[in-house]
Amino acid sequence: MDWGIGRYERTALQLLPAAEAVVRHAGLAPGERVLDLGCGTGNAALLAAAQGARVIGIDPAERLLEVARADADERGLDVEFQSGDAAHVPLDDASVDVVLSVFAVIFAPDPRAAAAEMARVLTAGGRILLSAWLPGGAIGEMNGAAGEAVRKALGAPAGPDPFPWHDQAALTDLFRPLGFGVSVQEEQLAFTASSPLDYLEHESREHPLAVAGVGLLDSLGHGDEVRARLLAILEEGNEDPMAFRATSRYIVATARRA
After folding, report:
1. pLDDT in tens, 146-162
2. What pTM does this model have?
């Protein structure tokens, strides 16, 4: 998946409150060395740098890194951005004090490899903070329906269930062998637009996953049918009859060495 397609910048702006929550839970101290893993356009990295941390942002999408570098320069923030992914973090062992990942490492194909890499680059007293969506809500239902529509259009078999990054017990099982204990705090984020249709159209044009999926479905002749289904989900879950608002719940998990 190329997260550089579309315009992830708008999605990043929507997710900024979640980045603020993750950074707040991190309790950063000036001078701490921070890795923003899957940094995208740099939301968490820039927030951490503004608090005096020494920050590196890593992401596989070069276009998003260019956006992040430009934003850091405009704000006068000293942040290093470089290419990499969760399974191969290009940093030395015990080189950072904090790892942040805002709705990013949850897409890692190999959760155990990602957890091992985060643990490897952390100092002995380091901590990991990541966010993950909780099941439910109109946005989650829409995304699930869209993914299922793509799978069926391709005639692909159902894959294994994704790793439940939102589940404290699963996270504990993932991180305990690496010497970490896990705590979880629940947060929520409201997605808004002028109408359900406006939200769907913007997502279809701009979110990387949606852009890829819409192009495929249109090419196979399923686009209009799927769009109507997704719009019905958003209309049913709309919390604002005068516009559009859908609240999604998520967790901020903190993993500390036990």
Report:
1. 888 888 887 888 878 89
2. 0.92
What tokens appear for 228 in the block?
């109507």
Cα–Cα separations (whole angstroms), residue 213 to 77, 149, 154, 191, 227: 35, 9, 11, 20, 11
Tell me how far apart the alpha carbons of residues 44 and 102 are, in angstroms, rounded to a whole number: 7
Tens digits of per-residue pLDDT, 180-211?
999 999 999 999 999 999 999 998 888 877 87
Quote the pLDDT of residue 1. Answer: 65
The residues that bridge with 85 in the sheet, in sequence order, are: 88
Shortest CA distance to 227 belongs to which of 150, 140, 155? 150
Long-range contacts of 156-165 (CB under 8 A, 24+ apart): 163/106, 163/111, 165/105, 165/106, 165/111, 165/130, 165/132, 165/253
What residue has token string 């859908």?
246
Q: How does pLDDT run across 205-231, given as a tens digit for each residue?
A: 888 778 778 888 878 787 888 899 999
The CATH number of 8-135+159-192+247-257, from 3.40.50.300, 3.90.700.10, 3.40.50.150, 2.30.40.10, is 3.40.50.150
CB 41 within 8 A of CB 9: yes
Residue extents of the structural domains in the chain: 8-135+159-192+247-257
What is the pLDDT of the chain when averaged over all its residues?
93
Region at 252 (left for phi over 0; alpha for psi -120 to 50; beta for the rest): beta
